[in-house]
Amino acid sequence: MGVGMHDSAPDNDAFPEDFLRTFAELVRLRRDVRRFRPDPVPDEILEEALNLAHLAPSVGFSQPWRFVLVEDTARRAAAVRSFERANAAALAATAEEDKALYARLKLQGMREAPVQMAVFCDDATRTGRKLGARSMPETRAYSVVCAIHTLWLALRARGVGMGWVSILEPAEIVRICEAPAEWRFVAWLCIGWPEEARADEPELQRAGWEQRLPLTKLCHRL
Amino acid sequence: MGVGMHDSAPDNDAFPEDFLRTFAELVRLRRDVRRFRPDPVPDEILEEALNLAHLAPSVGFSQPWRFVLVEDTARRAAAVRSFERANAAALAATAEEDKALYARLKLQGMREAPVQMAVFCDDATRTGRKLGARSMPETRAYSVVCAIHTLWLALRARGVGMGWVSILEPAEIVRICEAPAEWRFVAWLCIGWPEEARADEPELQRAGWEQRLPLTKLCHRL
Predict the structure, then answer these.
(1) Domain B32-194 has CATH 3.40.109.10
(2) pLDDT per residue as tens, chain A (222 positions)
């Protein structure tokens, strides 16, 4: 084993109780970060997190995640302009009574975060030979999301913040990243040290935009 | 803090090194399980995992995950029939040279696993007031995937296995679960104690279906 399991039941590969408690803390303290310090993130931390992300589940073991680190200043600026257009459209579509609060929210750290990464799903991959993805091809993109979520937890565990920007024009991000036509844009990730080291609640909750729902309302039995 | 952070840098909310190592083990040992023992999973374990899943990131804090525990025998049998139809179609569409191996693979534990759960995305939810989901509405389903992936890790940490079945007819699962028309079917989850407590590699890798790709081929810089 190597990590001290098998405490209680010999045929039960559970992790130790103290790990379980800390893992719950990690899940609870993971935030969608929009306020970053400009300090660089060591390459080793990013590499370690990407290596863990690469162990995420994927439909038919298709591993369809494609990571594009965007370092070029002009490309970054073009992505910010895409956000600005998409955000102006989103604000215009928002209900009148919500507009003032919406306009005050900080929704991305695309200028401040030292690492900017676009993540795509290769919908044309031959890896996995389409196993599991014929009746539900969207599961390829879902696999990419599992990798992104793994990256998020791995970075947070190192104290590094990540924010997922979705207020963008997918076709424009494909163009900016010179991605093949078969690549589906999934996420733009801002990665860096958070201004606020630890935040117990989502920023949208603290800003009064939305509250956490009671889980019991979201679970059903039949 | 409560979990022993702040070891080295006072403004860095990193988790302890031993936790980081064990977290990497958890990610590495999480499997898509298809072979289950029939023993029941304690309610407390499932509840704990669902509570963690409910802390997953969601676009605009929309929390669009909807969990349906399917206990009814007739509904479970109908879902198995949906798998059988979708799998027959998938086998027929598989390349001739792959058909024999495909037919030998065990692709789900829908009959054996004690817990069977359908997960949906409420695409019509008003929670979060569509923030972040106007230009990319698919991010709601991606949020549900983050919750599913959290559930997966939380269960695996307790030694409980989970398998994600995607070889199904989405419209039929919506019908079986009497889900509202606005709910998008995301995943059918089989949950239970795995026959094999610990497996280092994905079953599809061990069966010779697919190998892990080198991560460097999936990362790009520009």
Answers:
(1) yes
(2) 334 444 444 457 999 999 999 999 999 999 999 999 999 999 999 999 999 999 999 999 999 999 999 999 999 999 999 999 999 999 999 999 999 999 999 999 999 999 999 999 999 999 999 999 999 999 999 999 999 999 999 999 999 999 999 999 999 999 999 999 999 999 999 999 999 989 999 999 999 999 999 999 999 999
Find chain A residues with C-beta within 8 A of B221's C-beta: 68-69, 71
Domain-by-domain residue ranges, chain A? 33-196
A210/B127 touch (CB, cutoff 8 Å), yes or no: yes
Beta strands in B71-208 (DSSP E): 115-122, 161-165, 183-192
Chain A residue numbers with beta carbons less than 8 Å from the beta carbon of B214 are none
**Closest to A188 (Cα-Cα) out of A104, A43, A30, A69:** A69
Judge: A149–B146 Cβ closer than 8 Å, yes or no: yes
Provide the token pair at A3.
């990590």
* Three-state DSSP state, A182: coil
Q: At B172, which helix (H) or strand (E)?
A: helix B170-176
pTM of the model: 0.95
Minimal Cα–Cα distance from A37 to chain B, Å? 12
Structure tokens at A202: 């989502």
Please say whether the beta carbons of A135 and B166 come within 8 A.
yes
H helical segments located in chain A: 17-29, 43-53, 73-93, 96-104, 139-157, 170-176, 203-206
Cβ separation A166–B139 shorter than 8 A: yes
Mutate to test the interface with A, among B127, B151, B204, B206 (most CBs of A within 10 A): B204
Q: Does domain A33-196 have CATH number 3.50.50.60?
A: no
Q: Would you call B164 and A70 a contact, using CB atoms and an 8 Å cutoff?
A: no
Sign of CA dihedral A215, A218, A219, A220: positive
